[in-house]
Amino acid sequence: MTRVLSVASECVPLIKTGGLADVVGALPGALAVHGVDMRVLVPGYRQVIAKLPTQEAVAEFDDLFGGAARVLKAPLGAQVLYVLEAPHLFDRDGGPYMDPQGNDWRDNPERFAALSSVAAMIGADGIEDWHPQILHCHDWQAGFAPLYLRELGAAGRVSTLMTIHNIAFQGMASASRIGALGLPRTGFHQRGYEFWDSVSALKAGLVYADKLSTVSPTYASELMTKDFGMGLDGVLRERQEDMVGILNGIDETLWTPPYKTIAEKAKHKAALRKELGLPADWPGPLCVVISRLTEQKGLDILMQALPALLDRGGQLALLGAGNPGLEEAFQRKAQKHPGVAVRIGYDEDLAHRMMAGGDAILVPSRFEPCGLTQMYGLRYGTLPLVALTGGLADTVINASPAGLAAGCATGLQFHPVSAQALAQAMMRLITLYQDKETWTRMMTNAMASPVSWTHSAAKYAALYESMVKAKQP
Ligand code: ADP
């Protein structure tokens, strides 16, 4: 069995703000069948501690970044979860990264440095007689772990993989905190963890980890370009040889449609329209959006392009939260237009009902490392209309003339990410929707798309194996 400690700031079913949590929660189960013993280490936020069924302490620290801390052990499905209980860092109201007012916690660098440092200690010394061979570090919150591991002198025998789920979040901190973060000053330079005179936890991971990965092959190559690399493209180009893109899968125990046949889907559409107060007799497709409302997701563009859908009898149901300006704009739209329903907030059950009831899911992202909602859409026969970028490019087969002629299309892609291109794509969507035979064919294709973890888990397992071999004397 390859032993891997997966280190992350979120994990379904305990704490989630985005796709990272889904992936971290799904990997241990998906990898178990490949002979990987993956255990997960997450912070003990108040919400997480409250959900733990058991609280067995398996490690203790007198002073971890300013207070006492323990590692608690709990089950995660059939696997093992370690929770870093550090009340001075994590026992608070608010979210994992922000206070109740929506401001980043000022001590975020220390909070996640603590997580990374405990991961490194587990790497160096093991925990409960369990000695991981690999630290799999997810995003900036785990970015310092490879560096701390080096400092502990264990990087020669324990391997590290840094996975980028979104390069927009880089874990920046003022250089004045180098001492407080326990970082070696010798690493504060351009080829180390320094980034524009500050400290970047993500860059530390990208520089010091043995291997790098991201969550789709297209994003892996996009990241090496100026347009997508967000200042780290040069670092990534230098490490091109060590970088792979492995697509996320979906957790089919959580995301399986409540219907077996396409015909049954109509009932879910009717129920969703009723629930959201959308007229039942409009002819067009019911499009859904389930998304964080941020610049990345391109929903400002959707707002501009919306008449192309609504004027042709289409409807929009949006579930999301985030940018207050966007929340307000969509709520205003819903008040004015009977074809638009908007729910602001985070609602896992409604997300499932929308996926079941929608005809199409819209994902007009400016960039999208992998994206999960288009994959849920495929699984549910809710055809994805997506921007041609990142994982959206890798998972959807465009209904281009060639895609249609070959009979393999599963959705629609548009490029560039502009209101005009999206409006045109929505018109194409409506035309396809009116052609019942083609639409049904596409739904059948979509539902048969390989979106489970099967393929990707095998790729991770092979990568881990090669990493373990590389460390063998
Ligand atoms: P990202 O991680 O960038 O937010 P992904 O598409 O990878 O985007 O993952 C988003 C995840 O969060 C999906 O599981 C999606 O269903 C869920 N999600 C996003 N917004 C909401 C919301 N308002 N309510 C419920 N689930 C949401």
UniProtKB/TrEMBL annotation:
- Every copy of the Starch synthase catalytic domain together lies at 3-238
Query: What keywords is this UniProt entry annotated with?
Result: Glycogen biosynthesis, Glycosyltransferase, Transferase
Record's SUPFAM superfamilies? UDP-Glycosyltransferase/glycogen phosphorylase
Indicate which residues the UniProt annotation says bind ADP-alpha-D-glucose: 16
Query: Annotated Gene Ontology MF terms?
Result: alpha-1,4-glucan glucosyltransferase (ADP-glucose donor) activity
User: Which reactions fall under this protein's catalytic activity?
Assistant: [(1->4)-alpha-D-glucosyl](n) + ADP-alpha-D-glucose = [(1->4)-alpha-D-glucosyl](n+1) + ADP + H(+)
Gene3D superfamilies, per database record: Glycogen Phosphorylase B
The enzyme's E.C. designation: 2.4.1.21
Highest taxon listed in the record's lineage: Bacteria
- Give TM regions: none
* Keyword Glycosyltransferase on entry: yes
Q: Where does this protein act, in terms of pathway?
A: Glycan biosynthesis; glycogen biosynthesis
Key word Metal-binding present: no
Q: Which family does it belong to?
A: Belongs to the glycosyltransferase 1 family. Bacterial/plant glycogen synthase subfamily.
Q: What's this protein's function?
A: Synthesizes alpha-1,4-glucan chains using ADP-glucose.
Q: Which HAMAP family did the record assign?
A: Glycogen_synth (MF_00484)
Among NCBIfam families, the record links this protein to: glgA (TIGR02095), PRK00654.1-2 (NF001899)
Q: What protein name applies here?
A: Glycogen synthase
Which species is this UniProt entry from?
Salipiger mangrovisoli
